[in-house]
Amino acid sequence: MIFGLAAHAGRSETIGLAKLTSTALIAPMARRTAFVCAGLGWALLLALPAALVHLSIRPLLLNVAAGGLASIVAISLAVASRSAFAPRLVLLMLWYGYLSS
Prior knowledge:
Layout: H1 2-12, H2 15-21, H3 28-54, H4 58-81, H5 85-100
Helix pairs in contact: 1-4, 1-5, 3-4, 4-5
């Protein structure tokens, strides 16, 4: 999920593509909001099997929170850096910190 989010966020915020998408009817903030919503949906779908096996909503809540945070961090860093490297590096460091705790 980290590589997919970072790669898409970086591709959609490059200078050339940002100029192209600025001509569209959809505002950049709406496109970024759709990116975060897609990340939330992706996280929900990934957690659904665990929730069904354990008959609990806890895996859903945990994964949707993590997916939402990852989406927000990825698109924010992509907007700031105009590349996929910064979001990927930060998200990987957060993931390793999460796994080691």
